[in-house]
């Protein structure tokens, strides 16, 4: 498995454009249980990613992901910037070098990236955050079998839905206590959108 420059560009561009296209929806989710800025935050970050798309597409995959992470940290105010930044920077760091990009290598890098993000936010599954999508996606990456993009996409969607009944115990939504139940977590939804974008691109390639 190797990503060419064209596929790398398509992946990064699709992720960024999807988030920008869903910015209003993400902000509305955050209005219900947060401070109505998640879509605004991510849009600012991913528009900055789009502005450097040529460089990101041409760089080796590990460098590109790391750079994308640092851009998000710099541009996104709020909790989600450092968290998505940590995720992408750790993924990038673990995918540096010239070894071939195997499924195993991808899994190990993703495992390190999810662990670093959990650490950064001191969050565990069940607390109604983006971690509630990242952890099931990681599990699905590990599972053997055909149709990986389809499986991961479906798992991410189900995981985002499953945050609706949860009571938040991390992040701004936790200030609402029991009133946070009944709404999808905005970060879980943005995570689903990003994962879905990657899955759609990979599905088209195979
Ligand atoms: P802020 O909460 O600072 O306004 P955003 O609105 O951009 O930042 O992002 C909110 C999202 O970030 C939440 O929906 C949740 O998924 C995620 N989040 C917040 N705090 C944490 C945390 N400690 N660990 C993991 N994810 C978190
Ligand atoms: Mg917010």
Describe this structure in words.
Helices cover 69% and strands 0% of the residues. The protein has 206 residues and is mostly helical. α1 (5-21) runs antiparallel to α10, α7 (103-121) packs antiparallel against α8 and α9 packs antiparallel against α10. It is globular and about 50 Å long. The model has no long low-confidence stretch (mean pLDDT 96). The chain binds adenosine-5'-diphosphate and magnesium ion (MG). Magnesium ion binds at residues 30, 34-35, 37-38, 78, 172.
**Ligands, deduplicated:** adenosine-5'-diphosphate, magnesium ion
Q: Report the sheet-strand fraction.
A: under 5%
**Average pLDDT rating:** 96
Shape field:
globular
Low-confidence stretches: none
What's the main sheet like?
none
Annotation, overall tally of beta strands: 0
Number of helices: 10
Measured between the Cα atoms of the first and last residue, the distance is: 11 Å
List its salient traits.
globular; binds magnesium ion; mainly alpha; binds adenosine-5'-diphosphate; 206 residues; single chain
Short structural description:
The chain is mainly α. The protein is 69% helix and 0% strand. It is globular, with a radius of gyration of 16 Å.
Which helices and strands appear, and what pairs or packs with what?
Elements: H1 5-21, H2 23-33, H3 38-51, H4 53-58, H5 61-75, H6 80-94, H7 103-121, H8 131-142, H9 148-161, H10 186-205
Helix pairs in contact: 1-3, 1-10, 2-3, 2-10, 3-5, 5-6, 6-7, 7-8, 8-9, 8-10, 9-10
Residues 30, 34-35, 37-38, 78, 172 line the site of magnesium ion.
């Amino acid at each position: 498995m190797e990503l060419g420059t064209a596929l790398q560009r398509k992946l990064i561009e699709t992720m960024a454009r999807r988030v920008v296209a869903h910015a209003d929806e993400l902000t509305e989710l955050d209005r219900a249980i947060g401070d109505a800025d998640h879509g605004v935050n991510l849009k600012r970050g991913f528009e900055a990613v789009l502005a450097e798309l040529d460089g990101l597409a041409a760089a080796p995959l590990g460098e590109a992901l790391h750079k994308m992470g640092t851009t998000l940290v710099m541009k996104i105010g709020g909790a989600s910037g450092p968290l998505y930044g940590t995720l992408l920077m750790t993924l990038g760091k673990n995918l540096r070098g010239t070894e071939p990009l195997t499924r195993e290598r991808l899994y190990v890098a993703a495992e390190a990236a999810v662990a670093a993000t959990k650490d950064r936010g001191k969050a565990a599954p069940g607390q109604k955050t983006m971690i509630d999508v990242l952890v099931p996606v990681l599990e699905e990456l590990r599972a053997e079998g055909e149709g990986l993009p389809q499986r991961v996409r479906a798992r991410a969607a189900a995981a985002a839905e499953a945050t609706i009944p949860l009571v938040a115990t991390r992040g701004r939504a936790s200030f609402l206590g029991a009133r946070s139940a009944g709404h999808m977590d905005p970060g879980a939804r943005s995570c689903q959108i990003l994962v879905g974008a990657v899955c759609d691109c990979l599905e088209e390639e195979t």
